[in-house]
Structures are given as structure tokens and as C-alpha cells.
Amino acid sequence: MNILETIVAQKRIEVEERKRLHPLAQIEKGKGFNRTTMSLRASLEKENSSGIIAEFKRKSPSKGVINGRADVQQVTVGYTQGGAAALSVLTDISFFGGSDADFEQARINAIPILRKDFMIDEYQIIESRSLGADVILLIAACLSTKMVRELAVLAKSVDLEVLLEIHDETELGHICPEVDIVGVNNRDLKTFIVDIRRSIELSQSIPVEKMRISESGLNTASDIDLLRESGYSGFLIGEKFMREPDPELAFIDFVNTLTTRPALPIKGGKNL
Q1: Residue whose C-alpha is closest to residue 247's, from 82, 35, 92
Q2: Which CATH number covers residue 34?
Q3: pLDDT in tens, 224-257
Q4: In Å, how far are 5, 73, 91, 92 from 12, measured between CA atoms?
Q5: Of the listed 116, 161, 171, 178, which one is catalytic?
Q6: 121 located within any domain
Q7: Active site residue 116
Q8: What sign results for the dihedral spanned by CA atoms 68, 219, 8, 44?
């Protein structure tokens, strides 16, 4: 099995255990379930938005431990105060060192938060709502087109936005009306090869009405400029910040390099 298949196999085991320990009727009573959600799309569309979705990530299968000492509240509050358009918080335990507790601690921030995990079951959608998520991630590489549609419909029914992550042209068919935002992951989850040209090449194939974000391998203001020229409104960045001793300070330094550069128009309008 490749690493993605290994992750999904483990996730199926974890989800079944979570269902046993915390039935749906129980998690639907969670404190986050009835909160009013915030829109990632609206945050990215705001005038002068940084466009950065700043990610809190402790480790990854490809890099091992990235930052095992970072305090989730300190980092995410720093991201928020520094101008992040939204946050992304990993909740996968086995491969990324995340947890529900990390997410719940980050929820003190009043900006949209993406629950970053491998969604394979309807249970996880309801669980995400209970945790206080605003957006959920669906990864085309590990879901059928039918499953993407079913999970997206359920997410919309509980007021969650849907970010669909694709990697190549074969996954464009996973895009459905319920998907709010299409993200192009520049890292191939099967090989871990990173190339931002993946976003540029796929840009014109994404339906015009879908907001676009680029994920992984973004390191410089020039990368952001190039992707904005290609129609991207959002940029998910985690490892660049998390590998530094003070991720929140690294984030602020990066945003400052963006705000001192002339704003570039997004081709075809802000939603392209």
C-alpha cells in the first residue's frame, strides 16, 4: 500500500472505534454543534485579505516531527492577530500528531477554521460540526465521486463549507455543486513530490464559479504572486511556519513581505 492507502486503512479503524465510544446522539450535543459557523469563502473575499490559511501541524509522514513543542493556542492566536484569513488544524493523531484537543483549543479564535483530516465517513462530518469546525476537507484521492457528493451534501446540511482537494486532472470529476472551494494540493499524497506548477496547470480546468486555493510547497511572496495571477484566492501554508521555533512570528514576517508588495489583480474576478 502507498502512504495514502495506509492512512485511510488506519482511519477506518479509528472511526469505528470513535463511533463505539461516542455515538452520534452524544456528539450532536457537543458545545460546538450549535454555534454559528463562519465562512472561509467570505473571509478570503474580504478586501485586503492576506489570503493565507495558516496551518497548525506537529508532524507529517514525509517530514516526521516538524514542531513537537509548539503551543496550539499561542500559535493560532498569533496567526489570527497577524492577519490569517483562516486557520487549518490537523486532528489526525497517528500520522500528523494532531488531536481534537488541538482543534478545540484553536477554536478560541474568531476566524474560520478548517478541520484537516481524512474524511471517509458521515460520522466525521457530524463530529467536525460538534468540534466547532467551519469547513471540512474532502480529499478526492481517497473518495469516490459518489462519496464526495454524499459527504458534501451532509456537510452543507449542518452549515459547514466544503473544501475539495484535488491533485490532478483525473480528480476534476469529483467537483460537485455542494463543493464551495477547490483546493489543489501541490504535494502528491502518494509520492510526496511537491510542485506548485500543479496548481498553475489545473487552474483553468476548475469551474469558474468555484473559488480556488493552493496548498503545500508555498514558500515565498513570489509564489503567492504567481498563484494569484493564475486565479487563486487562498493559500494554505503550514510547514513553512511550523518548522520555525516561533511559528506565529514566522507567519507575521511572511505576511509583511506580502503587504509590502503591490496587490496583483486576480484574473477574471475574485472568485476565479
Answers
A1: 82
A2: 3.20.20.70
A3: 999 999 999 999 999 999 999 999 999 999 999 9
A4: 11, 29, 15, 12
A5: 116
A6: yes
A7: yes
A8: positive
